[in-house]
Each structure stands twice: as C-alpha cells, then as structure tokens.
Amino acid sequence: MLFESGGITENLDGFDQLSWQGGWINASRPDTGEKATLGPSQNPVGLQQLPGVSYGMTHQPTYNPMQAKAPAPPGTGLYPSGPYQPVHPVSSYQPGPPLSSYPAPSGQALLTRPLMGGPPSHTPPQSASPGPRLPPAQATPPPPAVSSSSYYPNPRQPQPMAPAWHYNTAPPPMGQPTSMSIPPRGPVPNHVNPAASSTPSSTPYSSAPPAHVPHSVTQPPGPGMPPTSLHGYTQPGPAPPPMTHMAPHTYQPSRAPYGPPPTGPPPTMKPTPPPTGTLMPNATPPPPKADGTVAGNGPQAPNSYNHVDNKMAGLPQPGPPGRHLGHYPSLPPGYQNTSALHNAGPPMHPAMQAATQPYTQPPQTYQQPPGGPGPAQLSQSLAALSLQSSTPESLRVVNLLQERNLLPPNPMPAPTPCLPQDLQKINCNPEVFRSTLTSIPQTQSLLNKAKMPLGLLLHPFKDLSQLPVVTSSTIVRCRSCRTYINPFVNFLDQRRWKCNLCYRVNDVPEEFMYNPVSRSYGEPHKRPEVQNATIEFIAPSEYMLRPPQPAVYLFILDVSHNAVETGYLNVFCQSLLDNINALPGDSRTKVGFITFDSTIHFYNLQEGLSQPQMLIVSDIEDIFLPTPDSLLVNLNECKELVQDLLKSLPNLFEKTMETQSALGSALQAAFKLLSPTGGRMSIFQTQLPNLGVGALQSREDPNQRASAKDIQHLSPATDFYKKLALDCSGQQVAVDLFLLSSQYCDLASLGCISRYSAGSVYYYPSYHHQHNPAQVECFQKDLKRYLTRKIGFEAVMRIRCTKGLSIHTFHGNFFVRSTDLLSLPNVNPDAGFAVQMSIEENLDDMQVVSFQAALLYTSSKGERRIRVHTLCLPVVNSLADIFAGADVQAITGLLACMAVDRSATASLSDARDAMTNAAIDSLTSYRQSVLTIQQPGLLAPACLRLFPLFILALLKQKAFRTGTSTRLDDRLFAMCQLKYQPLVYALLMIHPALYRVDDLTDEGALNINDRTIPQPRVLQLSVEKLSREAAFLMDAGTVMYLWIGRNCHPNFLTQVLGVPNYAAVPDNLYLLPELDTAESQRTRAFIGWLRDQRPFFPSLHVIRDESQLKPTFMQNMIEDRTESALSYYEFLLHLQQQISK
Amino acid sequence: LAIIKCTFTFNLFYILFPQIIAFDELKTDYKNPIDQCNTLNPTIEKVKKIKRVKIAIKLVLPEYLIHFFFCVMFFCAAEWLTLCLNLPLLAYHVWRYMSRPVMSCPGLYDPTTIMNADILAFCQKEGWCKLAFYLLSFFYYLYGMIYVLVSS
C-alpha cells in the first residue's frame, strides 16, 4: 500500500500558516513566561509584584467582612494591607515576592496536609530547604494577609478543589520521568475549575519575583530535594495534584532548577515537589501557619490571585514601578485600577513576549487552560484582583459593572479543553473544529441548567499548511457506526480496537499492523491515522458511485443594460483571463458561458470553430439547450476560443438597451447543462430578476428601513430558487451568487439558490466601475480568490458523535439529507458550518466524548478523498465545570446562527430578544448555581466576561439592528455571512477590532517572511478611545476603516498618507500610497497582514470627520450609545436588572 | 342515519392508513438515520429522501380534505356532538395550512427544514396525536353505529 504521510501540503495559504503560528505562540507563551522568570531573575519584577499584591488588597476590604467570618485567626494579619501598601517599593519588594509566593503555598500546604497524611517525615527536609525563604515571609506578615484575604471568599474552596484532585489522580504522575512530565500539564488541562489552569501562566510571572532570591537558595536544595519531593508524590495519590497547583505559583521559579536533575525537561514538575516541602514548613512555623490557615480556606484562590498580581505587576515594572505603587493605595474601585493597569499593560506585553521568546523551546505546552489567553488575562486579571477568585482562572468572578477594560489586547485564542495532556496534544485544531462548551455536560438537564447552547463550529475544508494524506486500500472504520479510526480510540491489544463513538470492539486489519512511516510492524497505534486528529484519505473505489466527475465551471452573466452600466463584465473577463490557467482542475476541466437579459445566450465553443458562436434562445418559458454537446467544452482543448470570447464579451453588449432580466430561465438552462456532470455555476446578477420563472418583485419599502417595528420580508418570496437549488444539489451542482447591485435584489429569495446547493454568496452593494473603486478592487480580489481556491466536488459531510449525543440543527449552506449527513455539491475552503447538539442519553460513565466530521469529496484532480477531523472533549458533571469550559466566541457564533434562523422563522425582534435572553439566562444560572457568595453587581465568570459585549455587538450588527437605516439586502447578506463564515471571520463582523495606528512600533512585532508586522493592541469600540490626535484602524472583517483624527500628527499624514495636512486627505481614499518611510511600511505591513489572514478582501476606506462613511464607522462603536440602541453600560444594567428579578 | 355513520367509519380507515404510513416513514427516517449501505450514494439517497417527503405531502392534503368532508357531513346530519369534537381539529388543520412555509405547490413540509430535530419531532408528535384521535373517534363512531343498529 502506498503511504504518504505528512507530505502533502494542500493549498498553502499564508493565512493558515499564520494561524497555526499564532496557535503556537499562544501555547508557548506560558512556557516562555515561566522560563523568563527562571532565567533572568527579575528583581524589578519583584518590585512590581508587591504593588500588585497590595493593590489587590486594597480592594479586598469590601470582601473582608465576608472572609473574616470564615477564618478567624488570620483576621488581624489580613487587613494590614492598608499599612502594607505604604511600604516603600524597595523594602516591600524583597519580602514581597517571597511573601506573595509563600502565602499561597502555605494555604495549600494546609490543604494538602490532610490529604497527604503520612509524609511528614519527608516534609521536614523540604521545609528546611525552603527555610531560607521562610524568614522573609515571617518578617513580613502583611503579605500573608494578602493571600489570605484573597482566599477568604472561598470557604467552599475545598469542594472545588476536590474535583481537581480527582482529575489529577487519574494521571497519577508518579512512576517515571515521563509520567512526571505529564502531571504538571495534566492538572492544568484537567482543572475544569481549578486555579491550576491559571496558575501555569501565572507561575511564570509570579515566579519571577522570587526568582532572584530563591535562585541561589534553590539551586543548592535542588539536588537533594528531588527525591523527597518525588516520594511525596508517589505515596498519596491525591496529594500530588494540589502540589502541582501550588508549585506553579510560588515555587516554580526556584523549583525550576530542581526539576532538571530529576526529570530533565519538565520544569513544571519540579515546581510541584517543592511545594510540598514548602507547605510543610508553613504548617510547622506558627506565625506563617496563621497565614496558612487563612490561605487554607482558599488555596486555589490565592494562587490565581497572586499570579494575576504578579503578572500585572511584573510586566509593567520595566517602566515605572513607583507609579504603580502610587496607584494602588488609592485604588478603591476596581474600575480605576484596572484602567490604570490596563494602560500599562500593552507595553508589558511585548516585553513579555520578547523575554519569553528565547525560552519558547521548552516542551511545556502548558496550554493555557480554559481561561486561557495569557495576554488577555493581564488586563482582566488586574481588575479581578478585588474579586474573590474561585478556583480556575476561567471561573474567576468578574463584576462587569465595575470592570471596564475586559477586552484582551490581542486576539483571543480558543480555550483549551481540560483533557489529559497527551490527548490534548493531538486534538483537533480549534480553528477547524470547535465546541461552544469545551466541557460537555453529562446530561441534558445539566445543559439546560447552564442555559448555554451546545454546539460545534466547523471549518472542515480549511486550507491547511500541513495535512497528512494516507493512501491505503482499506480505510479502517468501525463496523457498526462507520467511524474512521482516530487518535481517540482505544487499542485493547495489538489486534483489537474499541470505537470511541459507539464502543464496539473492532479488529485491526492485517494491513494496518504495518506502519509505513516507521516501516515497522505491529504498532498500529503509531500509524498516522492514530496520530493525527485531522487526516485525509485517498478513497478507494468503494467510495464512488460513479467515476469522479471532472471540474466543470459554468459562468452565467447578466448582460442587461443595468449590468453593462456597472462595468463588471470587464473586470470579470479580465480576471478570468488572468486566472484561466489557475482554475483548479486537470485535463478534463470544462467551462461554459451563458449570458442573459430578456433572452438566454449560449456560446458554442466547440473545437474547430474559428470564433465563438452565440446562440440566442428567446423562448424563456420553455427553455432548451440549442447544442447540448458543445456548450460545455474542455478548457485545455478550446482555450483559445474561450479567451476570444472573454475578450469580446464586454464589447458585445456595450450598446444593449435591454433592461429585463430572466434569471430564472437562465438558471434552468444552466441546470440542464450541468446536470449530467455536476459542477459549479457562478451567477453574476445585477438586478432583480423580473421576467419569466422566478421573477421577483421589490418588497422593500425604503421608508421602513429604519423602523423599529419588525422587519418584514426576511424569508423568501418564492420557493422557485429553493426548489431549483434542491434539484441542483441532487445533480451535484452548486450555485455561487455574485450580486452587484445598487438596488434591492431580494437576496432573501435569490440567496436560497446558493444556500441549499452549498454555494457561496458575494454581495457588492452599489457596485460601479467608476463611482466605487473600492468595491471594484474588492470584487477583483474576491474573484481571484474565488477562481483559484481549492474546490471539492460531489461532497458529503457526515458528523458523528459519541452515542448519547445527537445533532439537533445544522447551520450553513447545504442540504441536510439525513439527520447527520449534509449534501454539499461543492465544498470550498471558505465555508464554515455550525451544528447544534443535544444530549439524548446521559453520558454517565464516560470521561470523554468525541465528534468526528468526515468530508468525502472529489478533488479538482478527480481524486476521491475523505478528510476526517476528530475532536475529543471531556465530560463533566458540575455546573461550575461547564461554565469554566465555556468558549464565549464559539457561543457567540452559534447564537448568531440560531438568531438568523429565528428571525426568518419568527421575527427579528424575537431573535433579538432571544439573544438578550441567552445572556440573561446563562448569567442568571451562573449566579444561582455556581456562585456561592452573592455579591451585588453583574457577575460573570472570566471566561464569559465578554459575553454581554458580544451579545450587544450582535444586537448592533447589521443583521439584527433595528432603528438604524439598514437596507434589506445588506441585512440579509450579513445574515448569510454570519451563518456561512467560519467563526474567526464572523467574529470580526460581529465585534470589529480597533487599533491605533499612528504610533505603530516594532515592539512586539511579528516577523513573517522577513516582514515585520507591528502588533498594536486591540482597543475597545468606544469613542472615548478615539482621539483627535491619532489615527485608528477599524477592522470589521469585510471592510476596514482608517479614521484620521482632525489633529492627527502631521508626521503620520505625510509619512503614511502622503498628504501635507488634514484638509488634504482626499474624500475617497481607499489605497495607502506606497511611501518609502518606516511608518508607511509598518502601516501597510499591518494592513496587509490583516488582509492576508482571510480569504476575502476587505476594502479599506480612509475617512475623516466629514466623510460619508463616518456614520458607518461610528455605528461600529458598539460600546457607545446610539439613538436607538443601548450603550454597553446601559445594556449591562439592563441585564443586571433582569437577572436580579 | 346508520348508513351514513357506517360509511364514516370506513372512510376513517382510509384516513388512518395513510397517516400511519406517512409518519412511520418519517419516523423510521428519524430513528434510523444512518443508511448504512447508501452513505456513499448521494444522488439516489437524496431523491429517495425528497420522495419520502413528497409522500407525506401527498398524504397530508387528502387527509385534511377528507376530514373537512366529514365535518360537513356531520353538520348536514345534525350530529352536533360529533361535530364539536371534530371542530378543534378542523381549526388546527386550517391554521396549519395557513402557516405552512412558502411553497409553490400544495403541501406542508419543506424538505430543507424537515430534518431539523425540532420540526421532525414536532411532526412526529403531531402524527401520533392525530392517530390517537382518529382511533378514538373511530371507536366512538363504531359504537354509535352499533347502537343505532341495535336500537332500530
């Protein structure tokens, strides 16, 4: 059998590479952070830390009352925060770092102790080692207080912890070094709830401060310590996990040194052993003990807390530590603090990165757990300081009303499911396969309680830079459910494997025993199929019903007067001429052309003709094909004729006065032409079809556009297009629609033709070759991508999931042929899908569930291929865990799809209400079921902190907004896109990114292909962030706006825009001049990079205060109040009001 | 009078059968979603699927019409009680038909949305409920017929 592994790179798309890289960076960040701490003992960091801590303390006061109740003893110590703060940076600093680190461990020590039970003997020695540090801790009682304060909130903490332990026990670290390495990661992912998740990231930072002190200390103990620490590990199953948690916080820095000796690579491990030791010490010494007790109550909380502080503090320190200190005393409301810190934040971030870079290599893959986004946490975490942090970072309570700056400064990575590290490592890339809940609830009732939608978001045909392709005569599948073998199956022994979806035991075929990659026999679990969650098979003939179809492209062009006026024909013909050799296909590729106005024109391109022959059929009621054989011709054989035609086509209709459009008949003709083979039709339409079958009437009343009442006509006026699409789907024909129109075109009806035939829709409102050059460029670029992108023909996609789960609804463009099967006549790399899931049977005894999407298609080269993606997710049984695993971006994407459906079947206001209710319900549920301590304010777990913002953004999105004048077609196109775009792009449409671009620097810049791409931070969408002295770039997915402030620095105007002053900025500027200045290069590199990341071409509009587009720009300022919509703060108040009802 | 009732009951059989067949088919489609053998046969499967839906469409209309016809007959026969029992269903049928998706041909079910779990479940439930209703009314009519026969 043939085997090519990992070899084939399908479309190499810059975008993909980037995205993958991005993933890497994120993953590695924590590590790097950690490393950084280890290596350069950053004294300055230490300084910062203190401020951070103290600052947190200041907040605490509010909570203290509550906390006080729980642990009496520490009380006095706790609140010293006040006095503490005054401490000078220097003095505080030294003790500070140790302190901060200490307290946390101590608390844990207490916790662990009971668990450990036996190992005190070991501990003493350990304690000795930490001893050196202890002194400082004791010296500075206040710090413990800090920690304690943070802990208070969670008297219940022990409970949350318990689950975490369980998890940990599962992967009992002990044993060999390898296992060792696992535990550190294990806990992290495992922790659904746990602070641990947060800890990893935090550790790096927190560690930094202590690092300098411990450095010397730690090193010596290192060698001796390891054994003892290990011991502790092995003996008590449960004990180790807690240690791991703690370790990250405080000891990591010092531990790191240890680590190497025992296990070698896994630095994370090391940290764990030390904690135990440290814990014990804490317990023993009375004074610390008090702290410890306090901490004990809330072991995890402190950790996250600390690390948060550390991060915050540590990062900024490079700049002005003193400044921060100053801040903190005065910080009563979290609000102020956060903002201040926030500002500090950005600079830090790059620095962080820089520091981390060198260290990236370490294997640690500490994936940021649920809460994940390292950078994101910074800002929010600051804010969160004041709040009691329950266990995991993602569950940290955030009072949305008080914390303003929640938006992560960089794009958010997807949360990582809490899986054992080895599974997570091979899990499907979240850009391809993503779930709204990274922890699947055990029962439907639990899911109902959580009030969050469960679903998957897929981008199955995404261009991947690395895709293993397997050629094999037998494709190993489960015999009962037909699941493809995947990395998450169990091998019972060499010859049998157990399906992870239906649990049937299957035989391993003889052929599968041989591994062509390693050329070894008897290692079925090393095969690429079992090593990769995304894989492609070349399918044998059983997977074909008929010989694979050739690539067939049919272009249907509107040539009525209106169409000629827009001038699109020139662009189209030119683009096709340019790309005619790049059309995906092989020697069998066929093309054809049909033009239409009130009649249908066919083009006979048969070989041997001297020039293309136009055949006109004017009987549009009963359409027929004049010469069925020669209308679709082989591209290679007749290329010259095709080129002739393309050159003459624009001139052919120059003088036409025909204004009618018989689209329906043209489609019927095209269907007849394509139905024997299947293929792709591309329709270019510029007006409402008004003749023959499928004629439509204008349903839009322009006066009603802005009405707050319900929007009518969101559903199709006729089912002609839908029925035709179904016929097309049956014949493997997909219809792509390019709508270039300035008037109402009834996209609701026309769109059906693409929607049910798995096509795509492109819409260029007000397209005109002279009046709207930005659209022309956009059309050109889109067309190029469209013509040359990969394509799969006669495809079907089946989504399987573990028994007990079932698919509820699909979203996207396709026809649902069976409950889990989508018919996709064509599949393209830019199509995304969403699936709502429901839980039919309880998933009681399952640890994980899997989802598998298998896409069977014919490549443009006539190969039958199967692309299989498998996603594995943990099952949890507590609401807290579900919330901890919520993926707010995916939830938003899925809700948007559901809302689109809702507005078509019910009404727009219904859909809007449903979205608001989704936010209310889930936050209510969180408040009632997860939060044990009720506080005032609008509380959300950290992982959902952006949920209200995204919902508000959706309500203000073109698709769902009311009260603002929105053309019906614009609205419908936005709806189409929400359903059809992959999540990343849809999110940009929902919540645009705003960057300040007049002060781009190379600090923290990415370096891709020798281009330096600056990375400005993402700003909140609020006018308050704009300033007249600056320039801002708003990236709204399909369009970008460059807003120039009135007093913008002249440097920017001259260096980037090439104009002398503000007044000279032209009105219709949509291109940045290519100036040879650093600023210009940076700006263009950044915009180019943003554009490269997506398959469509966002047009750029440079706007000033007077520009026509300014209102559009301002409408995207989601957090601000508009005449008809609430501001973010008002929306939060509204939510709060509803929740507290 | 007896004769009329007799024909009613027989006619009811005719209503029942198509109902059972149609919804059973839909149901089997639901219960047995994985067409083991035909997974790779898009064309055939798809046609089959659409046909199945069409069957349902074809069966639904006659059912409505026959039911309407009954109601008219009951009205003519001055069977007020029976008519009252049937009126709600009649109203439901009217409502259901008025709120059907946009379609150029008569029918209720849209092949593109029928596979939505909610809609399918609803159709199924609706089918079973009506089946039960028809069955009960069948026995009621039977009882009425026999009663009339015996008493006369």
Automatic annotation (TrEMBL), chain B:
<dbReference type="GO" id="GO:0016192">
    <property type="term" value="P:vesicle-mediated transport"/>
</dbReference>
<dbReference type="Pfam" id="PF03311">
    <property type="entry name" value="Cornichon"/>
</dbReference>
<comment type="similarity">
    <text>Belongs to the cornichon family.</text>
</comment>
<feature type="transmembrane region" description="Helical">
    <location>
        <begin position="131"/>
        <end position="150"/>
    </location>
</feature>
<feature type="transmembrane region" description="Helical">
    <location>
        <begin position="64"/>
        <end position="90"/>
    </location>
</feature>
<dbReference type="InterPro" id="IPR033466">
    <property type="entry name" value="Cornichon_conserved"/>
</dbReference>
<keyword id="KW-0812">Transmembrane</keyword>
<keyword id="KW-0472">Membrane</keyword>
<keyword id="KW-1133">Transmembrane helix</keyword>
<protein>
    <submittedName>
        <fullName>Cornichon family member 1</fullName>
    </submittedName>
</protein>
<dbReference type="InterPro" id="IPR003377">
    <property type="entry name" value="Cornichon"/>
</dbReference>
<dbReference type="GO" id="GO:0016020">
    <property type="term" value="C:membrane"/>
</dbReference>
